[in-house]
């Protein structure tokens, strides 16, 4: 098997995650300090919000930026059936990839207004987390007061007006020891995760949205520590969640599953895709589709980027990566699939390096051979998006918009007092606006204190 060379930061993180899993398995019945309890976490690029993040004022995305990409080691999965697929693996020569570098022109901050406009700036409670894949609303997970219970509540931010509407004040299972840990929303409905971290149980709920009013919560799935806490997506009338067997757990021989429930259809859930072995990325929501990364049905370890139609769940596009290449995130935009590596490979030609990749031009479905590609070279911490033809990517501190055709890019200005991760990108898919946010806990020279989450909505000019 080709060798994958992780970075020092990744090795340090792997040790940290192993320690956390060992603690979680011990599950003390009477913990002396609740902030030390470790809630379920995703092991593939999406760190779920934790009690420690809220109570100590650490913003969840700051932790995600540092801890993104758990589960670095290549894994051994159950062997596929004898009826193997015939696959065509992506091949990209090194000279077919352009990168962010000296030959790429940066747009001066003084000229920024000619390329992108700030159309909204709103302040939310400190510690807020946001997710968005449309031009209307963002789902918000917000902390309660430091000594309060519940731990968190759910609100919707209306991007046009800045109105923040609370839709769920506490977990449905609050009296049973459950708290809200994750949420996604479309304009039609809400999906969220509740977890009892002491018992190692998670539950998935959905509810329809009608003019901003939340319908009756429906329990659509439930699991224990044999499964990772599912990752979520909401697209149109559809709620999706991805269920993976926990690494080293009692369900390792089970398939990975993508499940779906229709908003307003009761508690009925269906499996819409299964994968032998673990899918490598969380589901990625666009306006009318969802991207997953199942294993191919082959003896080799290949991950297939797969775009499903959100309504029919039929495959609309797919792309197989070289053997043992495991993306941190996978998405879809104007030029087809995007994927991210947080490590360097010693094989793979033009896609062997760390960064975020996307084709440099449009093309036909499943027609990725012979294309030119673009690589954003910064260490990935957030899935990219597209807005009016611009490729929107999270850099080390700023969020950047790239015009791949002209190799021109802008970097959004940072807010004074921003946290260590800078701005964070909340938007996925292709939209006409995109959302960034940063949590600020700062004291000015004159003693003025500022503790809030600054959300900004941006509209770039449309590229020809």
Cross-sheet strand order for the largest sheet:
3-30-29-28-27-32
* % residues in beta strands: 35-45%
Number of separate helices? 3
CATH 2nd-level architecture: 7 Propeller
- Provide the number of structural domains: 1
Give the number of DSSP strands.
34
What do we call the CATH topology?
A: Methylamine Dehydrogenase, Chain H
Q: Report mean pLDDT, rounded to a whole number.
A: 84
Largest sheet: 6 strands, mixed
- Helix/strand structural class: mainly beta
Q: Which consecutive residue ranges, at least 5 long each, have pLDDT under 50?
A: 1-82
Proportion of residues in helical segments: under 10%
Keywords: Membrane, Transmembrane, Transmembrane helix
Organism: Raoultibacter massiliensis
Region (Disordered): 1-45
Protein name: Twin-arginine translocation signal domain-containing protein
How do the helices and strands line up, and which of them pair or pack?
Layout: E1 4-5, H1 8-26, H2 51-55, H3 60-67, E2 97-99, E3 105-106, E4 116-124, E5 129-131, E6 137-143, E7 152-158, E8 164-168, E9 179-185, E10 189-196, E11 201-210, E12 213-214, E13 218-223, E14 231-235, E15 238-243, E16 256-262, E17 270-275, E18 284-285, E19 289-292, E20 304-309, E21 315-320, E22 329-333, E23 336-341, E24 344-345, E25 355-359, E26 373-376, E27 385-387, E28 390-394, E29 399-403, E30 408-411, E31 424-425, E32 429-431, E33 434-443, E34 449-460
Parallel strand pairs: 2-26, 3-30, 27-32
Antiparallel strand pairs: 1-24, 4-34, 5-6, 6-7, 7-8, 9-10, 10-11, 11-12, 11-13, 14-15, 15-16, 16-17, 18-19, 19-20, 20-21, 22-23, 23-25, 25-26, 27-28, 28-29, 29-30, 31-33, 33-34
